[in-house]
Amino acid sequence: MNDQIHVEPDRHGPTTGYLDHARVGPLSRAAAAAFAAATASAARSDPADLHGLFALADAARASAARLLGARPHEIAIAPSTSNGLFTVAAALSGPGTVLVPAGEFPANQYPWLRFADRGGPAVRFVDPDGQRHITPAQLRRHLTPDVTALAVSAVDSLTGHVAPLAQLKEVLGPGRLLIVDAIQGLGAVPLEADAADVLVSGGQKWLRAGWGAAFLLIRDRCADRLVPGLGGWAGVEDPFAQPFPAPPLPGAAAHLATNPDFPAAAALGAAVEDLLDGGGPAAVGARIRATLAELLDRARGAGADVLLDGLGPAERAGIGTFRLPGHDPAVVHRTLEEAGVITTRRGAWIRLSPHASTPPAAAELLADALHTLTHRTTHFQESTCPTD
User: Fold this and answer.
1) Fewer CB near the terminus (10 Å): N or C of the chain?
2) Taking the alpha carbons of 44, 48, 54, 55 in that order, is the dihedral positive or negative?
3) What Å distances lie between residue 2 and 104, 330, 331, 343, 345, CA to CA?
4) Where are the domains of the chain?
5) Angstrom distance (rounded) from CA 114 to CA 94
């Protein structure tokens, strides 16, 4: 697998052909400015600056609450999506089984595996009839009395398929948890976030907020089913009170090991506000989907096969994946990169993930690069074909 990208620094934003936001979203101006301001504040010694940094983290939680339809105390700032998922895995103690689709990205597999032998629930990987995503009907067939949760991505990282979260939660019912890794959807398309009992998402992809901070949402309706397994001194009411441990803080903060990275939290909050000011996930997602549709049309025009080509407009988020039959995928990936089209390669597949800011010229770059590949192959075959 070749996930390497090479992008020259650009003071004015991503390059025209940058189609790799599902891997890394270059920092937005709003996020970069917030990060720089918070870092400058952290370099000063005035107590007011320290109070201001805590306020920035609180503001980020409030922004996330608006985006996710939650209460601010239901959200904590974790270091990353993976850290948030490990935090949840550590919090699910006692008997039970977590269902995980077999095609999930490894970040949503390892937390459950690591804690299965450390007092956490057992893990059952479900192969959803050869697909990477699980349907409500398939979930119903796999429900057994021991199942206590389903861990699923809101958007599949390879196919771009949008999980029907509300339908999955309806099948699970109120007694089982729906745990959602939302990093490939949050900021790219509307998500049925209300259905998620627990939701985790970092900001380095579609939110374009960089690394170091992620949202950990734990709804009040399920808070009593999660014990703060990784909750440390920052997650209790009085860390100096005796005897240890002190009572946990209310809400998601009970699961914090320590204070957040304040500049990263500021960037994440600014990115969410920028998203909301830009029309929110519906408006931004519509632009992303329209751009992706144009890109996939250009790929089809070059003879490419599109993964899950039958998905409806609302079923695919900002990710589309194709392969070019008869062509070495490593050569395809390298040729695109040399033409200024930045993508990710996963085995035989090339993944496209534009953003709302991706210009129309990106489709022309892609079409020209694919034409170069197919024309080169056709010319080579004709020149080496034996003649009478």
Assistant:
1) C
2) negative
3) 18, 8, 11, 10, 5
4) 29-277, 280-384
5) 15
Q: Kindly state the average pLDDT of the residues 282-307.
A: 97
> Could you give the CA distance from residue 56 to residue 268 in angstroms, rounded to a whole number?
10
Task: Give residue 138's Cα distance to chain centre.
Answer: 24
Structure tokens at 27: 């920092």
d(CA 339, CA 341): 6
Q: CA 320 to CA 352: how far, in whole Å?
A: 5
Task: Identify residue 160 by its one-letter amino acid code.
Answer: G
- Extract the runs of DSSP E, i.e. beta strands, from 194-283: 198-202, 214-218
CB 201 within 8 A of CB 183: yes
pTM for this entry = 0.92
Fold of 29-277: Aspartate Aminotransferase; domain 2 (3.40.640)
Closest CA to 186 of 359, 68, 33, 13: 68
Edge-to-edge strand order for the sheet containing 97-101?
75-78, 214-218, 198-202, 177-181, 147-153, 97-101, 122-126
- What is the rounded distance in angstroms from the CA atom of residue 122 to the CA atom of residue 117? 8
Confidence of residue 130 (pLDDT cuts 50, 70, 90): low
Q: Which CATH class is domain 280-384?
A: alpha beta
